[in-house]
Specification:
505 residues, mainly alpha, 2 domains, 0% strand
Length: 505
Amino acid sequence: MKTERLKKSFFNGISNVSIMFINTILSFILRTAFIKILGEQCLGLDGLFTNILSLLSLSELGISSVISFSLYKPLADKNQDKIDKIMSFYKNVYRKLAFLLLGFSLLLVPFLKFIVKGYTIHYNIYFIYMLYVLEVVLSYFTSYKTILIEADQQNYLLTPIRILFNLLTYGLQFAFLLLTKNLILYLIIKLVFRQIEKIVVNLYISKKYPAVNFNCKEKVDKEDLATIKENVKGILFHKLGNYAVNGTDNILISSIVNISTAGLYTNYLSLISIIRNFINGIITAATSSFGNLNVTDSAETKYNIFNIMNFISFFAAGLFGIGIYFLINIFITFWVGSSYALSTICVFFISLNFYLTVMLQPVDTVKNSTGLYFKDRYIPLVQASINLVLSFLLGRKYGLVGILVATSVSYLCTVSWTKPYMIYKYIFEKKITLYLKQQLKNIAVLLLAVLLTIGAYSFISIANIYLLFIVKGIILVFIFISVFLLFNFHSKELAFFKNLIKKKK
């Protein structure tokens, strides 16, 4: 069982990294063409409407995470009757939610002109908005089956399909953007091919699981339904809080500052999202495996696995977080021009927020895969309240930097310690002080690495911006890895990876 679980986690990790690697290259090329051809206002609209649809998609209530958790035990027990009932229930709920989302989206149309500030280009924002809406609404009819293959830890089997459609979609979008310079066609191509991809995935899953009846007429057992409802109530607060903190920045920037600033920030978000998704792809590959482990193994085993996930997360969060602070403005300058670069203080808080979110990924993985949604349900609302109030107050006075500061403060005051507290108490049965000590050690690594990097950079004087980026990048990587190994040389987690390498040899 353990060997099989490790194998599936490995394949899911490789799958996620492969897709992310290809997506990174393709989306970067496409994003560059988008900026050069359509400009910062179209870029701002893209970020704004994506944020709005994320808000409206809260009607999903996080039910996909709850259903995934509900499937772990039936799949482990090969309880076909329960799997049929849960999947049919999920399908019906998703179809109802699609119409609910459409209704909410239409109600927002009259208010778009108040949200979009400083908009001057010729495209009809209402038609563009509805294309974004249609893509999300249609996905509710065609994406429900993927939850089954993900919960069964075999998501890696979908990799060839996803890579093929990414190549087709990005390729056609790029070609039509160059030929027509038209935002509408760009969005229509994405809409059509993403839906075709989901249909093909559905057909594959139906063939992969021929015994599953997705149209089962029997209702979910009362006990299972009660558990699902309680978990949905719990996760809804988390979804609301998470969106209010991470999903409202472009809306706030667009309405408080202007759409052009939202466009500049979207460039940074797109680059950071690539990095974050790459890291999350590795960490979340273990989510379904952790769900399986949760119903089969001890608290101590789960704790040891979590420490390994946390070890990987800190290495990635620390390395890329410092890299973002020191290097992203250099990259932005030679990518799209210095006029698209933000101030150093903005970049500092962007890198801090990146670090905080990545470091919480292993914690969220454990919470989501063990169904621990209800006990801390009010904390995300406290976080959201802090973020929105401070964003409004600081944003009006200090602009973008004020909104970024609000996000950092809301994290540090709430979920950065409350979420770990919940899993340590209820999953690992240990004291939160163990986690806090590790975080203090991580902060020491970061501070020393930053100070040494600043010292090393003081000796560099290179005029060529491309060479400067490469040299600074090499120095940063060398310093961070050296400090990281110095502080973790005798850790159990590093010993685990050393033994893994020895076994491979």
